[in-house]
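FAQ
Q: What does a multi-component entry look like?
A: The components come first, one per line:
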Amino acid sequence: MRDTLGSKVVTYGLLAVFVIMVAVPLFWMVTTAIKTNKELYEDFSYFPQRPTLENFVRVIVREKLLTNIRNSFSVSMITTLITVIVSSLAAYSIVRYRYPGREWIGRIILFKYLLPSAMLFVPLYVIVTALGLGNTQQGLILTYLTFTIPFCTWMLMGYFRGMPVELEEQAMVDGCTKIGAMLRILLPLSAPGLVASAIFSFTLAWNEFLLALVITMDQSTMTVPIKLSMMVVGDQYIWGQLMAGAVLASIPVGILYFIGQRFVVQGLAAGAVKS
Amino acid sequence: MITKDHSIAVPRPLGTAVERKRAFWSRHRREVLGGIVLLSPALLILTGLVIYPFVYAIWLSFSDKMVGTVAHFVGLKNFRYVITWPQFTAALYNTGVFTVVAVMCKFVLGMAVALVLNQQIRGRNFFRAFLLLPWVMPAFVVYLVWRWMYDPLQGLLNYAMLDLGLIQQPIAFLSTKETAMPSVIIAHVWRSFPFYAISFLAGMQTIPLELYEAAQVDGSSRWQQFRYITLPSLYHIIGVVVLLTTIWTANAFEPIYLLTGGGPSDATTVYTMLVYVMGMVNLRLGEAAAVSVLFLPLLIGLVLVVTGLLQRRNDNA
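Then the predicted structure of the entire assembly, as tokens:
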């Protein structure tokens, strides 16, 4: 492509604008977290003068954020575990078995993946409460499965379709059962897809806000997003601690993104851009 | 296959018609049974936690259910009541404005970022990963950070604008009627544009370079190349991404709840916020369900269109 000086200037100029635009809020989150309250509320400065970890200590000791982090972790882990198992079985069934109605099941799964939880949170709240699971982690996990399973099943259906069926057929000729072919051939070969779907389902559960807001009621069950949002209204001078909490809440998904960047970008585009 | 006589060294390759039919049916039955057994956990969850709640929501909207009371059928009463609320009109209007403006901004910004990242620039992989960060961060974290930046007393934006002499006195971005909605939209666009950028970029990278080379030989301008090569190649992706994010944006809850809570005086109340306040704060579940059911036809229409687009793409692949 013709790279004139002018077009180079425009390209790098725009790039600089985009980078600054993305960097400023991130910078502000991190620097707020390591500023002292004096710097935050009295002597304003753009850069932290005396970096400190006291906000992290305070959010952990005074706000007991570790309890909420543990809640978030256990809910997300269990959700992910159930999701990956249930979704890979369902996806294998839809892609490799022949029975009437399976196209419809596939369609309903996609439909649910697209239908946002905002539409369902009122009845889900009533149902979870009626089951006696209001304000429990089990109740929250049940509702999380309503969006992680459709999403991961849909993703794995695409992944399994892309895997050559001949290898499984070969295994079956050699005396493997159909389930055996899945366990010994397809799933090991689909490890990247399974990892991606696990990353997605963990992230979706970790970040979920609305259902957690509706279902969890107190510190013993609250997940991190709800805890932090409750802190906003609690105290005027909370922002140092709040941003420390925000940094802590971002770390797990940041690590997952770093590990699985390749899969995540692929999976991200998989729905929209499939060529 | 049923072979009674095991002494025959070579089994007959083809049995009688009846035998073949029976073998087919037993194999077929095993196939169907196996498929359904594998599917059943997902099916159970889908039925119990998606289809049932979905139907239940519609029933709720025709009932006078409140938290802790038994539901009675009340016909269209909730709907008649809900549509007379000023808040409902406000929510309808705000949801429309929020969705349309945010989707347009995300589209333009996402396209610009994708076009820049599609150039031969140094460290492209780094920049691509970096510009994706707002989308990778948890949404609630993003909106809490923006709420802090919008703070009228100690927020970064007010300080910076006062410093630069752009304003004379601090602006209460989130609690002024005129600035609340734009502020919420800006924060939301900041979080969501990377999805557009990454999808468009992925599409652009599948366009053969020869097309651009040929266009250059013909002396076309950069704008012409964008208009007649890039854009048409992206039509399918643009369609899917725009519709998909329209659904997400129209159902956004976190930006509103975490930034303004719907205020000031319903200036940013979108329909999800209204459902939440009605159902979870006022505990009037019947009316809350009625509000969501009123938005359902539009949503289902959108979802069905995207389902069709994605399904077709997936079947072809």
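Q: Is there any commentary attached?
A: Sometimes. For this entry: The first helix of chain A runs from residue 5 to 33.
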